[in-house]
Amino acid sequence: QKSTETSVDAIIEGLLSGDRTMLSRAITLIESNASRHQKPSEEMLQRLLPYSGDSIRIGITGVPGAGKSTFIESFGLLLCHKGHRVAVLAVDPSSTLHGGSILGDKTRMERLANHPNAFIRPSPSGGTLGGVHRKTRETIIACEAAGYDILLIETVGVGQSEVVVKSMVDFFMLLVLTGAGDELQGMKKGVMELADAVIINKADGGNLELAKKTQKEYKQILHFLQPTTKGWTTPALTCSALYEEGIDQVWEMIQRYMKMTKDSGLLLEKRKMQAKEWLYAQVKEQLESAFFGNEKVEKLVPGIEKKVMNEEMPVAKASRLLFDAFYGK
Amino acid sequence: QKSTETSVDAIIEGLLSGDRTMLSRAITLIESNASRHQKPSEEMLQRLLPYSGDSIRIGITGVPGAGKSTFIESFGLLLCHKGHRVAVLAVDPSSTLHGGSILGDKTRMERLANHPNAFIRPSPSGGTLGGVHRKTRETIIACEAAGYDILLIETVGVGQSEVVVKSMVDFFMLLVLTGAGDELQGMKKGVMELADAVIINKADGGNLELAKKTQKEYKQILHFLQPTTKGWTTPALTCSALYEEGIDQVWEMIQRYMKMTKDSGLLLEKRKMQAKEWLYAQVKEQLESAFFGNEKVEKLVPGIEKKVMNEEMPVAKASRLLFDAFYGK
Questions:
Q1: ipTM computed for the complex
Q2: pTM (2 decimals)?
Q3: Can you spell out the DSSP letters for A259-315?
């Protein structure tokens, strides 16, 4: 008991003084599923909370190949050069699906990783919520307490992860490719409607003209969609992360958004709602794990599911049978 | 016990012979929350299942004022005249919000209600799932077993109800107004992306030109969106429900869709997936009711929620405290 206390003290002290190793250790504690880590982790977070919140939380999504890594590196370096401290949290629910993790390898963003103002944390494995680690929100708190004033949370545009990431950031960007024509690259439904900005990357060289055309198309669509934030017109910007062009404009846009939503009180309101939603999402996830992880329920599920799918059993009955099993009736 | 058995037998016999009163009674039994009705209801549904499924399930949504009632009446009458038997299930999560129920009053669709081939069931109160009654899916089974081969499930475009209705129909239509310009009537995010067709109503008289313009705008947007069904291009049609113009084309389109998805096997696949999703949605809803309805949890929630929203308590701790209360720790 005593040694854990000391350890949490040491982590907090180190973290608050900007020690990266201690921040890493804090995140490892946060992500731990060991029950003996639960209380120390809670205590640590409770004590870090007063130091958190004063940051800009930015979500970045895009299909594989849209150039997220290159963009984050360019963008992150720009911010570091301006004196900001940048933490990159990468979320990758699909590394096995798409052949190659979008992260894990810090070599992916070597220049950024080596900058003293940057901290890159690869995607953790373990319990997930819509493809996002259950504890990513807590990790944000730790990074902020460690003095990182800009959080970049990256997600690959697969499954539910964008919705979850959107629910923990102030600003959500969609990075897209040029030249995919009208199909919009088979983008997942609804992703564009989550975006506070669409960034058309690789607007360089022979691709520039196509980028401008793509930008025009996105503007056309965005014109018809409701902006995610009241009073904010979702822009479509072009940039070249590779040649570091247009990145400054992206940062200017985000600052404009932050000022607007801070002044109007929308930012505070949004963060409060996000915290609340996160609480309920956590509780629901835990409830479902308990239910579907129940041995008796687990045994029944395949047969019942099959009968329901073949319209051989009404859903009401199927549901009742599962609950009977759960409650040991 | 014995009398209930007999009663279920009588309901089933009457229902299968097309007796509307017995269908109404069956639905009342399905919707009942009384625990003594649970088993008879289950038994009844189990016995009705073999007679269900052979229908076209159509969902219809649209903002208040889009003319859903008039459309459903015109459309329903057309189908009745063609010899179909049409059941209308109305879902209204927002009657108190928008001043006036979209249903309840059968006078709303008097001509259709009086047609011998039609059956109109107003929205039930009671437990809901995203604004849709927990048992609407079971009600569909009863209607189908009673010989209704076309189901029209109406929902007002508010909250989560469209998503839930979409999850129980074969074809989902969005009814829109003309003349709302580029704003698309402040439509809820993502609703258009659920639609298998967009129907621009009130395309008549002085409104006709505007309707054509609106149609063009919708076509432009739909062009950019992914269709909800592989191989299906989501059309934008105009009609005048009031003057009964263009309604036939809507029916032709739905038949085309049904043939396509039946031939390809997509329809069967979709229905199987819907049944499965419905099962999980039901289980989750019941789990959450049990948890948040727990007396000790209920007492804790307001205080904990407030602390989480004010960033005074980490979510992980808040969640743990609620579970401790639930498990009586």
A1: 0.84
A2: 0.81
A3: HHHHHHSHHHHHHHHHHHHHHHHHHHHHHHHHHHTSHHHHHHHHHHHHHHHTTSS-H
